[in-house]
Amino acid sequence: MRRIHWCVLSLLLLIAAPVLALQPEEGEPPQEAETVENETEETEELTDRERAIRILESVPLIDGHNDVPWQYRQRVDNRLAEIDLAEDTTELDPPMHTDLNRLREGRVGGQFWSVYVSPSLEGAEATKAQLEQIDIARRLIASHADLSYVTTADELEEAFEEGHIASLLGMEGGHVLDNSLATLRTFYALGARYMTLTHWQNTDWADAATDDPEHGGLTGFGQAVIEEMNRIGMLVDLSHVAPSTMHDVLDVTETPVIFSHSSAMGVTPHPRNVPDDVLDRLPENGGIVMVTFVPSFVSEAVRQHGANRAAEQARLESLHIGDPEAVEAGMEAWDEDNPTPGATLSDVADHIDYIRDRIGVEYIGIGGDYDGITTVPEGLEDVSTYPDLFAELIRRGYEREELEKIAGQNLLRVFRANEAYKESEQGTTRPLDVRIDDFE
Ligand SMILES: [Zn+2]
């Protein structure tokens, strides 16, 4: 009796199983449709660029650094109406790297607009300029429906899903704080989501990569700045700072850091790049290097040429004191004999390869520095060219998942880790009430 029962049951199961397997689970697309889509992808014979575009349409490409707000300040004294990003800005003199059509073409899904302030401004002047930079960036974002002002990782993803370019603010140059944690907190409240600790020059509390060592890294007040940035959820940006500062920050930060626009010193030994011993600490910290396109940072030939040109200029100036025409003529002759070697898209991909091989694909992002540079690599001429870089990575064997991480998922991970830390601190810690003088 029992045996017969089992036989019937098994028979029933045999009949039912294939039928059940064909039923899609709730929320899952029917299997048939999926097969059709896969077939299309295979039979269509997509180019690498088209493949790259498909990836960038599914995951936001988040660029770490674009200097358009500085262009408004430099070119038109922040008169918003005088440059229309909806127009073709290649028509301007000099042409810009960024406008809305080209951002679309480049499949940019998220942009940290740099609200840079020159270190030639000091004290209250720098703080005022910071307010003006935040103001022009926010007015610019508000004036275009394509751009969507966001301040959290969730908002960033939502804006991308709605087809907008998520727009965030990143501050560049810690001198704008005028040594006050109150200004830091207020800039955060106004929307700034990262701060590059220094620009080209040291601040009173951190050494820059391109200035004489002064503090040996971070001072005690500098540590307080990091503690407060962690607490309020402001990403710490280590582009521009000295290796000593990078190490000091990695010793004290509770959250993953970013390099918003830096490349690898192991490929091009420019002081603005990230040295190997700092790269090696990133997996433990969880932070990312947003690889930049600045020609002299990504090509050693360009860097050497720049140094030689500066040396020739200095030599001619000391030979022809008080005779600028002779200097000019000499430089013209030198330029003719020494054409500028160009950096290329391939050079940039080499930096990405290098960081991946050394520490892994989880620690890479993209930070073009468009409109903050005057020359660009061949193949990466403006913001429309990001898909070409991803196409090159596809040719170099990168998997889709790796490219999704480089495009934006790594940045989102870092952003969320900072947000989570901020949340964990809320209610348990108070705003730091220290002054720079307390540390002397
Ligand atoms: Zn910069």
Q: Averaged pLDDT, please?
A: 92
Based on the coordinates given, report the CATH architecture of the largest domain. Alpha-Beta Barrel
- The rounded distance between the terminal residues' Cα atoms is 92 Å
Q: If you consult CATH, what is the topology of the largest domain? A: TIM Barrel
Global Rg: 25 Å
Bound molecules: zinc ion
Poorly predicted regions are 7-37
When the domains are counted, the total is 2
Strand share of the residues?
5-15%
- Biggest sheet descriptor: 6 strands, parallel
Organism: Natronospira proteinivora
InterPro entries: Metal_Hydrolase, Pept_M19
Biased composition (Acidic residues): 25-45
Keywords: Dipeptidase, Hydrolase, Protease, Signal
Explain what you see:
It is a single chain. By secondary structure, the chain is of the alpha/beta class. The protein folds into two domains: 49-291 and 345-439, Alpha-Beta Barrel (TIM Barrel), CATH 3.20.20.140; 300-341. It contains 18 helices and nine strands. The strands form two sheets. Strands 1, 2, 3, 4, 5 and 6 form a six-stranded parallel β-sheet that branches. α8 (181-189) links the parallel β4 (165-172) and β5 (192-196). α3 crosses α17 and α4 (68-76) crosses α6. The longest helix has 26 residues, at 400-425. The termini are far apart. The relative contact order is 0.13. Zinc ion is lined by residues 172, 240, 261, 372. It comes from Natronospira proteinivora. Its EC number is 3.4.13.19. Residues 25-45 have a biased composition (Acidic residues). Keywords: Dipeptidase, Hydrolase, Protease, Signal.
